[in-house]
Amino acid sequence: MIDFEFEPAVRAQLKMYHAVAENLMRPISREYDEREHEKPWQFYETMWSAAQSLGPGAAPAKSAAADKGDGAQKLRNLYTVLSTEELCWGDAGLFLSIPNPGLGGAAVAAAGTPEQKERFLKRFREGKPKWGAMAITEPGCGSDSAAITTTATRDGDDFVINGTKIFCTAGQMSAEKSEGFVVVWATLDCGAGRAGIKPFVVEHNTPGMTVTRVEDKLGIRASDTAMIVFDNCRVPANHLLGSAEVKTGGFKDVMATFDATRPIVAAMAIGVGRAALDYVRDFLRDQKVPIRYGISPRRLTAVERDFMEMEVQLKAARLLTWRAAWMLDMGIRNSLEASMAKAKAGRAVTLITQKAVEILGPLGYSRKVLVEKWMRDAKINDIFEGTQQINLMIVARRILDYSSKELN
Predict the structure, then answer these.
(1) How far apart are the first and last CA of the chain?
(2) What are the respective helix, strand and coil percentages of the chain, to the nearest 5?
(3) Alpha helix locations (H) across 250-292?
(4) Would 360 disulfide with which of 49, 310, 364, 388, CB 3.0-4.6 Å?
């Protein structure tokens, strides 16, 4: 049975994350939204120091029971989505910019050998702030990750990578500004389709890896999003994560990475949606507008109906997200549930933030408050890590037991 009654130690950790969101992130949220390509280094240093104090391998919001070895450590993914919601209540862009292994680390965890996980992730437990990124999307390959054209050619003890990747979250910080790395997905055999796709760890400042553009964006502007060109970029053969055999791993590792990261993206959406909902609730209270629960829907005002619908959408998305993360922790395949959570949360946060702007009227549309920013930040959750349409297609395939050829 799934039990989401969290123990006191976990609740205390979540209060700590909320305090970070309220006291460190909210005060600089507007500033780094408007100064998109400037970096809040003091914030980075503070968050890096805090992460190091948790100790090697510590999970966000880890419970005291985890230290006793009684199995609570298995809830690492669930605790990650809980802490993600709290921090994105503060600012989703700043959350994405926090020094950490990021999507690159998720790829290493999903596809790497035990030795590779230790080798590449150990750096995030020491030294100066650093970032990890994943490079998968290409100019001619968006939602269809199987259409990757970036190549990796074996040359002696190395692989030589050629291709262009776009929309890499934290790409600039990982490739140029820290001792991080980028995990680039490339094909070993263009004729092998999905089976030929493999992940490679490319260290920061590797010759042949160049950040050619950093995007100007609608939302999550505190986080850098980069285009990276790989031009005869040479990496050691042991930087290929997992097996080099074409029939082993490959595209399945891409999907395994998404199964882990989609609940986190859903939690990001929930944090932004909760921020908007909390603001509207406080605004209505200050305006002496009641929200009357427990009465006939026919007697509710339009504002009450809208607000309750916002609450319902948020709670439904949260429960789907918690379930997807819990299943991953339990070793249960969660591809269906991860896509359900991602699709629901992306749609819910779009509705919630747009309604928040609508209810507040001119104030919501102005830059005097953060509500319009949350609406801009919200939309990306319906796009990256698989668009709404792609995730709904995955849900349909899983429920109907259809292959990608039968339902596309």
Answers:
(1) 35
(2) 55, 15, 30
(3) 251-286
(4) 364
Over residues 190-241, the pLDDT tens digits come to 888 788 899 999 999 999 999 999 999 999 999 999 999 999 999 999 999 9
Give the CA angle between residues 80, 387, 140 to the nearest 5°: 120
Do 229 and 174 belong to one domain?
Answer: yes
> Which stretches of 287-334 are DSSP H helices?
302-329
Do 228 and 319 belong together in one domain?
no
Tokens of 199: 């992940």
Are residues 270 and 349 in contact, defined by beta-carbon separation less than 8 angstroms?
A: yes
- Asked if pLDDT for residue 79 goes beyond 60, the answer is yes
- Give the number of domains in the chain: 3
Which residue, among 337, 334, 331, has the nearest Cα to 317 in the 3D structure?
Answer: 337
- Average pLDDT for the chain: 91
Three-class secondary structure of residue 366 per DSSP? coil
For CA atoms 399, 403, 405, 408, the dihedral sign is positive
Is 218 within 8 Å of 374 (Cβ atoms)?
Answer: no
DSSP state of 335: H
Catalytic residues: 385
pLDDT digits (tens, 9 = 90+) for 102-120: 999 999 998 999 999 999 9
- Which residue segment(s) compose the domain that 278 sits in? 251-400
**Rounded to an integer, what distance in angstroms lies between the CA atom of residue 76 and that of residue 272?**
22
Q: Is the predicted pLDDT of residue 2 greater than 70, yes or no? A: no
Long-range contacts of 247-251 (CB under 8 A, 24+ apart): 247/195, 249/111, 249/198, 250/194, 250/195, 250/196, 250/197, 250/198, 251/145, 251/146, 251/194, 251/195, 251/197
- Residue pair 2/323 in contact by the 8 Å Cβ criterion: yes
Cα 399 to Cα 261, 319, 327, 337, 387, distances in angstroms: 21, 19, 17, 11, 18
Do 167 and 79 share a structural domain?
A: no
Residue-wise pLDDT for 353-391, tens only, equals 999 999 999 999 999 999 999 999 999 999 998 899 999
